[in-house]
Specification:
Blueprint lengths: L12 E8 L2 E8 L2 E7 L12 E3 L4 H14 L16 H11 L7 E2 H7 L6 H9 L12 E2 L12 H16 L18
Parallel strand pairs: 1-4, 5-6
Antiparallel strand pairs: 1-2, 2-3
Helix pairs in contact: 3-4
């Protein structure tokens, strides 16, 4: 995951909206990379970015829309668009760890905390996960509770379930995830 660390005030943000199988998404970018993917009913303060100017022809937004389309069509398992997420250093470490979760797999918050070398920071990892501005591409939907149950997701648990099913079905051809289901075992981080 490539990120830039410019200050929000120095970056003009452009956006476009796009229809996907999980609803309408607002794609937001700077000239440096993708800054956010927001859900239709996203809380306005979850990812504070302003001001925004509509520009549906911006190359980063077009690339993002194309890559998301390929993901939903079953032709893409990883993304190549440059990212320009704004966050604290801790949040960026968590988001980097999220980006390393393999397609079709899940991790718990505790596993992410251990991955970044902060095993006791499970709640802080959960908070950083909730602030992830680039849903789907930085796959926070692949993070589940320690019990294996689905936990909070900015797009809603139904969409989280859809994304996990899309990925697991493509990998195994059979698995259907149910939001009240628990996993017998989750893959371990290195």
């Amino acid at each position: 995951m490539k990120t830039t660390t410019q200050k929000k005030a120095q970056m003009p943000y452009v956006y476009k909206t796009t229809r996907t199988p999980v609803g309408e998404l607002k794609l937001i970018a700077t000239d440096h990379g993708l800054a956010a993917i927001l859900w239709e009913n996203d809380k306005p303060k979850r990812v504070p970015l302003a001001p925004l100017m509509e520009d549906p022809t911006h190359p980063i937004l077009q690339q993002t829309e194309r890559e998301l389309g390929e993901y939903f069509d079953g032709k893409r398992t990883c993304f190549s668009v440059n990212l320009a997420a704004v966050g604290t250093e801790f949040q960026k470490r968590v988001w980097q760890a999220l980006s390393e979760i393999p397609f079709g797999e899940t991790r718990s918050y505790g596993e992410i905390a251990r991955r970044i070398g902060r095993p006791s920071a499970v709640r802080a990892v959960g908070a950083a996960n909730g602030k992830n501005p680039i849903s789907i591409i930085v796959p926070c939907h692949r993070v589940i509770g320690a019990s294996g149950k689905l936990t909070g997701f900015a797009g809603g648990l139904g969409i989280k379930e859809q994304l996990l099913n899309l990925e697991s079905n493509r990998e195994t051809g059979t698995r259907k995830w149910k939001s009240n289901e628990t996993l017998a075992m989750t893959p371990q981080l290195l």
